[in-house]
């Protein structure tokens, strides 16, 4: 028994080292971007030349960049709202809807995980051309709703499932209508998850490139702007400065979404009724 | 007591139709129009001839004949499958010990570690691929670091523009996808099962091989699927770090809808990719069922 415990401890230490090495592998390439964004050379190579903020200065007053940023923000906000609305309704109806259609919708809503981005992109390109919309911001929003949908459905579904059944039954027994139960009981109880789903969908849309490549008209999103800049070696340091800003903001939003999700789950456990 | 049970078992009152309609509508619109109809359009287009119009002309299997008979498409499809399989294998094998540590050894650090390994997923995919480009380039970080440290005297071209570069970059980009499902599967294994194994005299490795590994297979399969699907159709990474020898099927589809402007043929290629994925999903399902029956 004692020997065994020592065994697992030793295993744990080796595994811990492995996990550490894995985290280095995961973060090292990504952290090169902030590192070189402060480097006073156009070449991303060692040795580092000198500290500079000039690449960040070139980010200011760049109309193409600010246009792409504004586009991305608007598209991400609208797409995340749409995906969150669908995530809430699809998972709620799947769990409580008592409609034969609801589980089917829920299953199809999680399907885009099994479709490569390039195919999501071209299928929507054909669709928006058929209905006369063409590549446009609306088309991008539709594409990003699809890409974010599996995430919002999964997040909302696990949250709704974590609310004890008795809560909803009590509300209905006390005479609340479906609307009232949903609006006054179930939705407030899952608010942290709603915010978390929205933020995750926002990030997915904001960073998405593979689908947007097909659906963008004349106004590019930020990833498309970055893609266009990657062709020019001279603009690479600026891309790295921009990338650093995006990394920082993404980390903050993802961290906030995580905290909200935990707070929601913690509250559900502490206060089940 | 009996009335209580009766009340609990009584069917719920049917919800108002207005509520049901309003709650079903957004999901129904998105799933039926955006997913099923759009995919149906791809399937339809795949059987049309290209005359430059949006939906093509006639009904033909010519596109599929071309895919089946032109060795170029076989080569590229096979390469995509090999690269995606290698990425999947590398990602799952390297992710498994991390998930194992999270499930059995992490203790109170579990939440933080789980967050740390999934965090890179929320940063731009494009930037992660770009990061590998600056690592592997001729004037890049790896070459300059090797020269600085005296291991190398000349930079080498051998890193960038190779299929290996594509595999490493994709394995890095999709790593967080693999850890979560495996961790979830490992976390649901009852600890009593492990105690039972050791009580019955199983050594730690035997217990792992006979108890932990089979019970975690559903998570491994789910991880393999979520890595394989996006990588098999990827066209960004091959374009950025792969060079011409790493063209994948996603790049071909993309060029049919761009430069080549043969949408029906691009649709046919997409249908073939979906068929491959369908086969992979069915195989995974079958394997899942086999492992599922053990517990």
From TrEMBL, chain A:
Transmembrane listed as a keyword: yes
Superkingdom of source: Bacteria
GO BP, sorted A to Z: transmembrane transport
Compartments where located: Cell membrane
Transmembrane domains' residue ranges: 12-36, 68-92, 113-132, 138-156, 193-216, 236-260
Annotated ranges, domain ABC transmembrane type-1: 69-257
Keyword Cell membrane attached: yes
Keywords in alphabetical order: Cell membrane, Membrane, Transmembrane, Transmembrane helix, Transport
InterPro entries assigned: Bact_Polyamine_Transport, MetI-like, MetI-like_sf
Entry-linked Gene3D superfamilies: MetI-like
Entry's family note: Belongs to the binding-protein-dependent transport system permease family. CysTW subfamily.
Protein name (record): ABC transporter permease
Phylogenetic lineage: Bacteria, Pseudomonadati, Pseudomonadota, Alphaproteobacteria, Hyphomicrobiales
From TrEMBL, chain B:
Source superkingdom: Bacteria
Keywords carried by this UniProt record: Cell membrane, Membrane, Transmembrane, Transmembrane helix, Transport
Principal place of residence: membrane
Bilayer disposition of the protein: Multi-pass membrane protein
GO BP term (any one): transmembrane transport
Locations listed in the record: Cell membrane
Keyword Transmembrane helix annotated: yes
Segments passing through the bilayer: 21-47, 81-104, 111-131, 164-186, 207-229, 265-284
An example Gene Ontology CC term for this record: plasma membrane
Every ABC transmembrane type-1 domain range: 77-284
Assigned protein family: Belongs to the binding-protein-dependent transport system permease family. CysTW subfamily.
Protein name: ABC transporter permease
Provenance organism: Mesorhizobium huakuii
